[in-house]
Amino acid sequence: ERSSPMLSVSFCVSALGSTDNCLLSTSARDPQETIRLERWVTAESKVTSSTESVFAVVAVRDPSRRGFIFTMGAYKYLEELWRKKQSDVIRFVLRVRSWEYRQLPVIHKCQRPSRNDKARKMGYRRKQGYVVYRIRIRRGGRKRPVQKGCVYGKPVNQGIRKLKAARTHREVAEERVGRKCSNLRVLNSYWVGQDASYKFFEIILVDPAHKAIRRDPRINWICSGKHKHRENRGLTSIGKKSRGLRRKGNKSTNRRPSVRSAWKNRNTQKLWR
C-alpha cells in the first residue's frame, strides 16, 4: 500500500464480540501508539438465529485534525471482510453457519439476510414486499436420467457420469425456490456458504401483488406478466451470465438475443417474393 505522511490507517476486526475497549495500533511507523475505542459505531452483521456478529472498524488518523474519522459506510467494511474468505473470522463464521443451515429444512424462509451488504447489492430492501429464502443444493454433477445406462444413441452420447451441466448450482437454486414460491418473483440470489456436500444460497423474492411494490417506480417493473418465472428463462443475473450476455465487444453479437436465435439469423436465407 502507498504510505502517506498525513494519514495512517488502522484496522480492528473482532468476531463474536464487541469492539468496546478494543486497542488498535495507529501506524506501523509508531507501533507503541495505541488508541482506545469506547462505544463507537461499528458495522454489524447479525445472523438469523444465533448470537454471531462480525464487527469491523476502520479509523483514519489525520494529524491536521483531532481524533479519528470514519471514511466509508458500514457495508464497505463487511464487503472487505467477505473478500478474505480464508481469514480466521470468515472461516469460523462459515463453519458455524454451515452447521446451522444443515439442521434447517432444504428450503426455508429467512428472518433477515445473512449477508446484508451482498443482499442490498443484489436489490434487496428491508421493506414490505421483499422476502429472502435460503436453500441448499447438493454439490457435484448429475447422472444422465436413463434406465440401466441405455442411452439408445450414438457412441459419442453414451456418457452417464462425469457430465457437465449447462446450469450452475445457483441457477438450480433459483428455479427450485421459484417453483416453491410460485406467487413471488425471483429478483436475484447470492452465495452464503458451502461444505463438503452442499452449497447454500439465499434467494431474493418480490411480491408483485403488494401495494408497496406496485407503487414503487424502482421495482414495479417486476410486476409485469412478462417477468413470471424469469429464473426459468435466464433473465436473472446468473442466468444472463451463463447465456454469455455479460460479454461485450468482439463476437458478442453471436450471443444476442440468444445463441440459438443468432445462429438461426446467420444460417437462414431470406428471399424477396
What does this structure look like?
A hairpin with a 6-residue loop joins strand 5 and strand 6 (68-69). The chain is built from 7 helices and 10 strands. The chain has 273 residues and is an alpha+beta fold. Strands 1, 4, 5 and 6 form a 4-stranded antiparallel beta sheet that branches. Strands 7-8-10-9 form a 4-stranded antiparallel beta sheet. A two-stranded antiparallel ribbon has the order 2-3. The protein folds into 2 domains: 8-90, no CATH class; 104-140 and 166-246, Ribosomal protein L15e, CATH 3.40.1120.10. GO terms for molecular function: RNA binding; structural constituent of ribosome. Belongs to the eukaryotic ribosomal protein eL15 family. Residues 241-258 have a biased composition (Basic residues). This is Ribosomal protein L15.
